[in-house]
Amino acid sequence: MKDKTITIKDVAKIAGVSVSTVSRALNNYSDINQETKEKIFSVVKELGYKPNNIARSLSSSRTFRLGMLVEDNEGTGRLNPLVLEMIIGFKNTSSKLGYETVLLSTTSDIQRNEKLQKIFKEKQLDGMFIMGLKMTDQYYDELSNIDKPCVLLDVNINNPNVACIGVDNVRGSFLAVEHLIKSGHKKIGFINGHKDAYVSYERLDGYFLAHSRYKLPVDNSLIENADFTDEGAQEAVKRLLQRHKDITAIFCASDLMATGAIYSLTNCGYSVPEDISVVGFDDIHLAECIVPRLTTIRQDAKKIGTSAASLLVNLVQGQHMGRIVIEPELIVRESTKRI
Amino acid sequence: MKDKTITIKDVAKIAGVSVSTVSRALNNYSDINQETKEKIFSVVKELGYKPNNIARSLSSSRTFRLGMLVEDNEGTGRLNPLVLEMIIGFKNTSSKLGYETVLLSTTSDIQRNEKLQKIFKEKQLDGMFIMGLKMTDQYYDELSNIDKPCVLLDVNINNPNVACIGVDNVRGSFLAVEHLIKSGHKKIGFINGHKDAYVSYERLDGYFLAHSRYKLPVDNSLIENADFTDEGAQEAVKRLLQRHKDITAIFCASDLMATGAIYSLTNCGYSVPEDISVVGFDDIHLAECIVPRLTTIRQDAKKIGTSAASLLVNLVQGQHMGRIVIEPELIVRESTKRI
DNA sequence: CTGAAAGCGCTTACAG
DNA sequence: CTGAAAGCGCTTACAG
C-alpha cells in the first residue's frame, strides 16, 4: 500500500548511505567521494528517481522557477505573433537548464501598482523575463534598483541584476532605410510604433542614421506614430499621402503596421510596390504569404527566447553576462522595388 | 535580523489561536467558529499574509498548478497566433481561480514516448490543458484511461477525467461553405488541414453537410489536404486549378492557408475575389488587414482559453461539466463575392 | 470547535 | 568525506 513515489530516502537506503549524502551528490557538491557518488547515481538511475522540486524549494531558498511576463494589454489589441515564438524558445531552454517556466501576464499579475518585488515573492520566482516593457509602465522605475535577476526584452537598464536582450533595433531600422535609399528612394515615410516603447527611439535613430550616412536630409513631416496597430498605420498613411504626394516608400516599424499600410495604399489607389515601396519589421510568418510578399527586417524570435533563458539562468546563478544583441536581417521580397 | 516573510505561525500567534486553526480558517473548513474565523481573517489582512503555495503543495496532495501543453513541432512551422490568445486567456482565468499556470511544450516535455502520467507527476500538476493534439500522437491513446483531469482542445475523448473544448468545427465549416453556395458558387474547392487532426474530419463534415443541405453534389477531386501550411495551400491551389478550370471559390481550413491560396491564385493570374472567392478559418488579426480583407470563420480564441481554464478547474475540483462548444461566426469581408 | 504533533521531501549547518 | 538532526511552511488525522 506504500505510495510508490520514490524519494531521496529510498535512494539513500538502497545505496547504503545517508540522505544528506545523496542530497550532496545530487547537487554536485565537491566534497564527496567519487565512488559513493557513482553508486548513488547508479541507484538514482535504476530507481528512476526524480527529486521533488517543491520540497527542494521549500527547504532551500531557490525555487528553480522563472517568470515570463507578457504584456497582454487586456484584450485591447491582439498580440504580436513573435511573442509566442519567444515564449516557446524561452520555455524550452530554461526547461533544459532545469528551470520551470511560469507565465505571468500584466492584466492578471501586475494590477494597480503592484511591485515587481511582490510578484517575485508571491510567485516564488528565481528570475523574470520581461517582454513589452514600456517606459510609462509603473514598474519601469523599480527596475533600476531591483535586487532580483531580470532579463528585459529590448530595454536597457543600468543595474547589475538586470540584463537586456533584443535585436539591434538601430541596425534593423538602418538596414530597412538603407535598402530603400539604395533602391533610389529619396522621400521615405516612416511609421513608427508606440511612442513610449524603447524600441521606437532606436528605430527612429536607425532612420536618421541611414539618412545621414547617405547624405539625405530628414524631413520630420515624413515621420508618423501609429502605436503598432494596423488601424493606426492606415490613418498614418493617409496623413502622409496628404502631405507628400511624391512619397515613394514607407518604412513601418512592424509587419502588422506594414500590412495595414499596404491595405490603405491599395484603397487609395496606389499599388505596392509599383507606386510605393513598403518595408516592415519583424518577419512574422505571414510576411511571406501575403500579396505582395513583404520586404522586412527579420527578428529571430526563437533565438531571442532561447538566449533570454540562458542569460537569465546565468544571472540567477550569479553571473552577469552583459547585454545580448541579436543581429537583425534584411529580407528582400516583393513589396519594394528599385526606382 | 528575522526574515520578514510572515508565515501562518505569525498569524496564529497574533490571533491567539493555533496554527491548525488558522489553516482551517484559510481553507474554508466548515467546523470553525465564526468569530475566530473573523479574527483570523482580520489578522491575515492586517499582516498582509499570503500562504506559501509551495509549502501548501508539499503537505497536501494538491499543487494548484495547471499545465498548458502546446505543440511547438520543434521549429518546423511557426505557430498559429490564436494559440497565444488562448494561452493568455487560460492563464488569466486560472490565475483568478487561484491556480498557477505552467507552460509545457511537446519538444521539451513530451520526448520519446514519455507518458502524460509521468509529466503530471514530475511537474506536479493538478490538471492539464492540451492543445493541438493529433490522433497520431503517442499520448493520444493514454488519454482514454488517464486518471488525471485533462481538458482537450478540439478533440473529444470518452473518459470522465477528460473534458473537451472548442469551436463547433462542423458548424464553422458549414457556415463558410453555405456562404459561398448562397453567393452562387457551385464548384467550391476545399483545402483542408493536417489529415491527422481531429478538426479536419469535422471541417470536412461541414463541407459535406452544406453541400447536401443545398442539394449540391460533392466532387471529391475538389478536396485537398495541405497540413495547415501556406506552402501546402499554394501547391493545393495549383492542383485544383489544373483539375478544375471552372472553379469559382475555395474554402481553406485556416487563414494562413487562405493567405497562401490567395498568393498562389494571384500569381497564376487570378484575382480574388473577382475571379475566385476565398474563405479562411480562424480570424487571426491579420485577416482584416490584408488585401483583400479575408472573409473567414471566427474562433474566439480568448474565450476558448478562458473557458478551458474554468472547465479544468472544475474538473480538478471533482466536477465534470461536459463538453464546451464555442459558436463560430462567419465574418464576411472582401475576399468573397456573389456571382 | 480547537490544539498538539507528525509528516510532506528535501537542504543545510554542525559535528565528527 | 559522511551522518544525525533541525527546519522550510504548511496540512491533516487524532484527541479532546
Automatic annotation (TrEMBL), chains A, B:
Signal peptide: none annotated. The keyword Transport does not apply. Gene3D superfamilies: 3.40.50.2300, lambda repressor-like DNA-binding domains. PROSITE patterns: HTH_CROC1, HTH_LACI_1, HTH_LACI_2. SMART domains: HTH_LACI (SM00354). Residues 6-60 form the HTH lacI-type domain. Residues 2-40 form the HTH cro/C1-type domain. GO terms for molecular function: DNA-binding transcription factor activity; transcription cis-regulatory region binding. Keywords: DNA-binding, Transcription, Transcription regulation. PANTHER family: HTH-TYPE TRANSCRIPTIONAL REGULATOR GALS, LACI-RELATED TRANSCRIPTIONAL REPRESSOR. This is Transcriptional regulator, LacI family. It comes from Alkalithermobacter thermoalcaliphilus JW-YL-7 = DSM 7308.
